[in-house]
Design goal:
Layout (H helix, E strand, L loop, with lengths): L7 E5 L4 H12 L3 E6 L2 H13 L4 E5 L5 H15 L4 E4 L15 H26 L4 E6 L12 H21 L4 E8 L5 H4 L4 H9 L9 H12 L10 E4 L7
Parallel strand pairs: 1-2, 1-4, 2-3, 4-5, 5-6, 6-7
């Protein structure tokens, strides 16, 4: 039997990167996957890939910064597949790069809205849908949910907030058969990094990881799969880094 046989999962930000890798891995392991993203074209391509492997999937366009669209996403999953067992709150942006004393106000608002409020909105509507039968929620934080870095105050604040929010919610629902955990990827070879940074900048990021390379989206997806499955049945309220040794320094 596959790890997620007959489970229904929502994955936000799943048109590319970690979200896409997770969607494909979940489907391989038997889950019915609701792919959600603001990029409708790429999102539908992920659905096509899942269906090509004889999996079940559907796309729903949603902006994680909108509470109404988070609610509609959960409602869509229930209408499409009849239940919700797993949610991965993965959607996020890097935000502007600037010192705190000069940080653009709109950049702050947008980064917090997507990276932190978006996770809260997800939990706000995912949890009620899981109360009857239980479930597992994985929030994608970052190594910068545990450490700081210069020039990204909004991102660091949001990701620290995701880790704290995860712990608070996990305690509230631990006795209701809903497990809530967070993961902390190091720097991963996603389009965000590969398409926006030059080779010099990418090499500088590699140097930050004792393992000597950037991570792959599929490596993070494997950790998320474990947390989504019954293999991690005694795990809740935890933060799991997957960072090539970044935080051990």
């Amino acid at each position: 039997m596959k790890l997620l046989e007959q489970k229904v999962a929502i994955i936000t930000g799943s048109a590319s990167g970690i979200g896409k890798a997770t969607a494909l891995l979940f489907a391989e392991n038997g889950a019915k996957v609701v792919v959600s993203d603001i990029n409708e074209n790429h999102g539908n391509k992920v659905v096509e890939e899942i269906k090509a492997m004889r999996g079940e999937s559907a796309f729903f366009k949603a902006d994680s910064a909108s509470p109404e669209e988070n609610e509609a996403l959960v409602r869509f999953a229930l209408q499409q597949f009849g239940k919700l067992d797993i949610a991965v709150n993965n959607a996020g942006i890097g935000g502007p790069l600037s010192p705190t004393g000069e940080y653009p106000l709109e950049g702050w608002k947008k980064t917090i809205d997507i990276n932190l409020s978006g996770v809260f909105y997800g939990l706000r509507y995912q949890i009620p849908a899981m109360l009857e039968s239980g479930g597992s929620i994985i929030n994608v934080a970052s190594i910068l949910g545990q450490a700081g870095t210069k020039m990204s105050p909004a991102y660091v604040a949001a990701k620290h907030g995701v880790v704290g929010l995860t712990k608070a919610a996990a305690l509230e629902y631990a006795d209701k058969n809903i497990r809530i955990n967070s993961v902390g990827p190091g720097y991963i070879k996603t389009p965000l990094i590969m398409n926006t940074l030059d080779e010099t900048a990418r090499n500088a990021l590699v140097e930050l990881h004792p393992i000597g390379r950037l991570g792959e989206s599929e490596e993070i997806a494997e950790l998320i799969l474990w947390l989504a499955s019954s293999k991690s049945s005694f795990v809740t309220g935890a933060y799991y880094p997957a960072d090539g040794g970044y935080l051990a320094q």
